[in-house]
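Notebook B, p. 112. Complex prediction, attempt 2.
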Amino acid sequence: MDILISGLLLGGTYALIAMGLNLQYGVARIMNLANGEMLVLGGLAAFWLFVADGLSPIATVFLVAPLAFAGNWLIYRLLIRPLVRRAKTQGQLDVDSILSTFGMSFIFVGLMVTIHGEYFTYSYLADPFSILGTTVAVNRLVAFIAAVAIGAAICFWLYRTQSGTAVRAVSVSTEAAGLVGINVERVSAFAFAIGGAVTAVGGTLISTFITLDASMGVIFTMKALIIVIMGGVGDIRGAIIAALLLGLVETAVATIIDPGLTLVAAYVIFLSVLLFRPQGLFGRRAS
Amino acid sequence: MDRRSVLRAACTWAAAAGIGALAVTSALAEDTVKIGVVSHKTGPLAGGEAVTHTPNIEMWVKQVNDRGGLKVDGGQKKIELIDYDDKTNPAEHIKAVQRLATQDKVDFMLSPYGTGFNVAAAPIYAKYGYPLIAVSAITDKIPELASRFPNMFFTLGSTTGFVEGARDTLVGLRDAGVIGNRIAMVNVADAFGIELADVARPMLTEAGFEIVYDKSYPLGTPDLSPIIKGAKAAEPDAFVAWSYPPDTFGLTEQAIIEDLDVNAYYTAVATAFPAFSAKFGSKIEGNLGAGGVNPDTPAMQAYREEHKAVTGKEPDYWASATYYASLQILEQAIEGVGTLDRQAVIDYIKTHTFDTVIGPVSFDENNNSERYWSVGQWRDGVFRAVADTGMGDSVKPVAKDGWN
């Protein structure tokens, strides 16, 4: 029971890390290497407002979400769209977007170091809460609930609304989507901005229980990449399932076998997914 | 374009980005003493460097320049600081040190943050004859390193000295009837954590303790609750974690949530940080950790006030003061010699006793200063030394009484 609950909570954390990148890479087709920095930026906002003004990170979420949405939309319009327009193939776009977002990640790190070069650590809702006999931290539980809400909202949007259908159409094929009258550029910009906002909000929530610092983004980018690739690029359900799976397996290994083997376990599942289902759990086979 | 060329492009970019190291020059007067430092402004160790090293350098340079500069060559010369970022990357670090020595031709260099970086940079300091007064470098290889690099000095103690401090603290608590024999021990699976755990395992067993839980966890583990749950299930009397900053915070938060009921709770790096007590407040009363200082000496009190006034933040209760002491040693040695002759300064450091914020410092035949605090305990918002080597001013440790 311990393993199930702790594992699900950790999976929720991983889902927060990966859902944004899934939208950005799956729909907007931008391999955003500054994804982790966006997450840490959300965490820095929470830390900064909490320490300076005593603002609750939950309130910060509602501040960070629109700001990150606007910021990412601008990034897409100003920095990414020229790349999309000039790229002749998806491969070319991948290279260009990796290079430019990699550069962007340095800018973000530099920015954050000048704001606060030390650890972003504070205490918020670090209280015990008992579920079915298992003690969990309230801040983790809040993050999990938020992850469920965000995941459900995105799924509802993608699978039950017209604009969501358009987004999925773009993720399947930009050409075909354009042919049926979808404004591919707008949908992509929107997906990129939503993805950035989800990531930043994730960072805000995660900062309540993980000590972040300005340079830590790359760790989250790596984790997000693993989860997105495991789940299948462009399928939000895949990312959520992969995140939960990773959380459960890591917690099970840490509890039953040895905490030292959690990373090994994570990469073993990752490798086996790549070996036996290279398109990812929910991915489409390349045609 | 295939995946490989994507990767290649990414790598090329990474390399290109690395070259543009950041240079900050504070004064450009003609006749200055150039002092170089390669610091981790970004990367995994940036958070620690920003607490322990950077503010001290800022404060020291300001103090020396405010009083007119270093007394050399019959006059006074202001310090010009040249500072590069290495992104916590050893290869970048070496390149930047080389650059300081050969292109900027700095007169002296300050020591880097982290044992690995001190050891990695030592050959270059030795090659160009720079004194290296290492602070954030704790190792059992001091005699070997000192014989290979006669320009290298050590101030913060050895791994064994550190673990001995922790052991003596635990033995003291056991003799006082505060704890029993059962110890839960965990460590971060990274250089310093592994080294400390390897030294501690036989040492604690030999002292009659029973290690009832002994696990390691990878650096950056996002959820440390299985570890605290596991340790709690082993019903220990004391909990010892050879941890790094993020996990020192994470383990302690989980210990509070799980109400890990031990009468001795030890975490290593970052327990001495002001951020640690800012985060946990009164809950960490009685927590043990690496470091500690004697906050009662007039020199230490003056230092802490000055640090706060100049940099706007509190120094930590461990290596901050020692790092500042290393700057004082360099300053006194340069002025003692009266010129910028580096070999003369090295000889001066070897043969003299220096009056510093942590008391008098001198170096033995292994270039090692055998005066350092090794374990501290949070008492009423101050992290007081409860174990030391050669200091003799530690207080007795007391029981940790719950997480309130």
